[in-house]
């Protein structure tokens, strides 16, 4: 981040040689650049501020490096499968509003997404950071933030970083990229890598797994 800011300052001085570096205009523009770099979740990971950890390396990160696993999936995904001992604070919660506009959105969501994936219509959990702070008040603690596919957890790391957590890990690719044995102890009726899948796609997956098993037995 420091290199990018210094480069910005150098470029600014070349383009505007008469503009003093201590001017209010310069400081305001530099501050904007710093904020943009530090709050972008992809940049946090790319810069190493948030550590990307693959599912196959997650157990070692927790056992040897002291990371605590924070599962930010919705409750209905976690109920299907979860890592034993993991903490849970959902980044998204089910939207229970029954106003006309929300109901219309829910119908559209069900027709295009919900029927196939089984996902509920959700909203951002407004108390996400507060709930994390209650269970992990020490902001120097090492947290490995995880979701199903890695996108929601990427958003969560950005929010947690802004609130002061500095030792954050991101489960790269999410639980979907995990294979049997990556996490020694898993609870729930489904495999961890399939917990995000629901609706019609879940039954389609079951058929594919069955056909694959039949194919192996016949070979």
Automatic annotation (TrEMBL):
<dbReference type="Pfam" id="PF00581">
    <property type="entry name" value="Rhodanese"/>
</dbReference>
<protein>
    <submittedName>
        <fullName>Rhodanese-like domain-containing protein</fullName>
    </submittedName>
</protein>
<dbReference type="InterPro" id="IPR044614">
    <property type="entry name" value="STR10"/>
</dbReference>
<dbReference type="GO" id="GO:0009507">
    <property type="term" value="C:chloroplast"/>
</dbReference>
<dbReference type="InterPro" id="IPR001763">
    <property type="entry name" value="Rhodanese-like_dom"/>
</dbReference>
<feature type="domain" description="Rhodanese">
    <location>
        <begin position="63"/>
        <end position="187"/>
    </location>
</feature>
<dbReference type="InterPro" id="IPR036873">
    <property type="entry name" value="Rhodanese-like_dom_sf"/>
</dbReference>
